[in-house]
Design a protein that fits this description.
By secondary structure, the protein is an all-alpha fold. It is about 75% helix and about 0% strand.
């Protein structure tokens, strides 16, 4: 358990009895409750992170569906731009200057 041997556990137990004496069960209970609250808090944080991750994944999958839907529609019928084939005349050159 965390690299702690039997001798270290005995020493920790003796120190606990010397420091807390009759209150040792009460201290143990409060430490246990604190650990449980900490674990619940961590689980809550993990569930919030997982929920956010799922929301992002869902939004990403929805956006890819929109791209697929956009491909289904035909291109609008608009006349295409055709550049002029003749060089500009003198009248056009003087009008732009």
């Amino acid at each position: 358990m965390f690299g702690i041997g039997m001798q270290e556990m005995i020493i920790i137990g003796v120190i606990g009895v010397l420091l807390f004496g009759k209150r040792l069960p009460e201290v143990g209970r409060s430490v246990g409750k604190s650990l449980m609250e900490f674990k619940r808090g961590m689980q809550g944080i993990e569930s919030e992170i997982q929920g956010a991750r799922q929301a992002v994944d869902h939004a990403a999958s929805q956006s890819s569906n929109y791209e697929e839907l956009a491909d289904d529609y035909p291109e609008p019928a608009v006349p295409k731009f055709e550049p002029p084939t003749k060089p500009p005349t003198e009248d056009a050159k003087s009008a732009t200057s």
